[in-house]
Every structure is written in C-alpha cells, then in structure tokens.
Amino acid sequence: MLLKNKLLFWTLNMALLTVLGCSKKSVVSSSNSVYGDDLAKVRPKFEYTEPVEKVAETTKPTPVPSSPKAPADKPLYVNKKLDSALDSLSRQNKSIKYISGYRIQLYVGNVRQEADAAKSYVYQVLPDLTPYVSYSQPTYRVKAGDFIYRSDAEQYLEQIKLQYSSAVILADRVEIKKSLMVNSSIE
C-alpha cells in the first residue's frame, strides 16, 4: 500500500510539472511606455574654433632635437636572454625520449618458440621495424614498430595480417628517434 501511495504521489507531481512547464507564458509588454527624460542639460557642450593657418616666411628650419639613443648593448641583452631561453627549451626537448604512439602486436601466447618466430619474421620481412618481446608469466607478447600516427601503423598491419591474422594495433609509449626512422609508406 505504501508503495502504491509513493507511486501515485510521484505520478501526480510529474503530471503537475508537465502541465506547468507546458503552459503558455505571459509576457508583459512595455511598448506603451515612452522614455521622456530630457538629457540636454547634462550633455557636455563644446565650442568649435576654426584653426588659423599661418603663412610661414622663408626661414631656416629649426633643428629637431634627436631622441636619446638606447645603449648599444640593449638589443644584445634581449638577444642573450632569448638565446638562454631557447637553449633551455632545447635541453628540455632533448631529454624527452618517449611519446605516446602505436605499436603492432603480432603474437600473444605461452609458447616461446612462436614468440621467437614472430620476432624473426619482423627482422626478415620488415627490417625497418623494431620488434619488442615482453614476458609476463606465463604470457609472451611480441610487438613491432614505433609509430607516432595510427595511419602509419595501419599500413604495416595489412602486410603483417597475412602471416599473423590476430595482429592488432595498440597504443603504447614509443621512442621518438626510432619512430622518425620508420618509413611512412611501405613498398
């Protein structure tokens, strides 16, 4: 009985909200009111005077005072500061060795000989890819390549699927230097 009362209560509340939410809204129109304040007394007033042109006689032009020159080392100071900032950025970029990328997983299984066969397949058929074998007891995983873009990995995946039909592309940390050496188009 209590459940029926709660259900009835919620149903009535939802029906009331629906009716109130769908009812026509009335908007108060203020088009009848006319703004009638005169702001002329608070507006600023300016008197315009026509500029008079003076006819200059032929006289010697007055020398223009030269602006004080900046010290000669000022631009060098900026350049030195810029060079030091660029050097620090260069050092930071050289320290980055890994980036998020993709690898092709050829083999996952418990047999070491099959993992070694997959590794040698990569060495023989795809010499520009680096094979990686990892072992997490009792499973061997063979991955190949360091790809920054998934589209590059997909080109190699088509060729690898001829031999290893279960090959897939996985997101992984890849070495930047090796990924730049991989040819983006296979022959």
Strand order, sheet with most strands: 2-3-1-4
In angstroms, what is the radius of gyration? 40 Å
**Oligomeric form of this entry?**
single chain
Q: What's the CATH class label of the domain at 98-175? A: Alpha Beta
Describe this structure as you would to a colleague.
There is one protein chain. The protein has 187 residues and is of the alpha+beta class. It has a domain at 98-175: 2-Layer Sandwich (Alpha-Beta Plaits). 40% of the residues lie in helices and 19% in strands. The chain has five helices and four strands; from the N terminus they run ααβαββαβα. It has helices spanning 2-22, 73-95, 112-125, 150-160, 176-181, and strands at 98-109, 131-136, 139-147, 168-175. The protein has a four-stranded antiparallel beta sheet. The radius of gyration is 40 Å and the shape is flat. It starts with a helix and ends in a 6-residue tail after the last helix.
Task: Give a short overview.
Helices cover 40% and strands 19% of the residues. By secondary structure, the chain is an alpha+beta fold.
Tags for this model:
40% helix, alpha+beta, 4-stranded antiparallel β-sheet, Alpha-Beta Plaits
What secondary-structure arrangement, pairings included, does this model have?
Blueprint: H1 2-22, H2 73-95, E1 98-109, H3 112-125, E2 131-136, E3 139-147, H4 150-160, E4 168-175, H5 176-181
Antiparallel strand pairs: 1-3, 1-4, 2-3
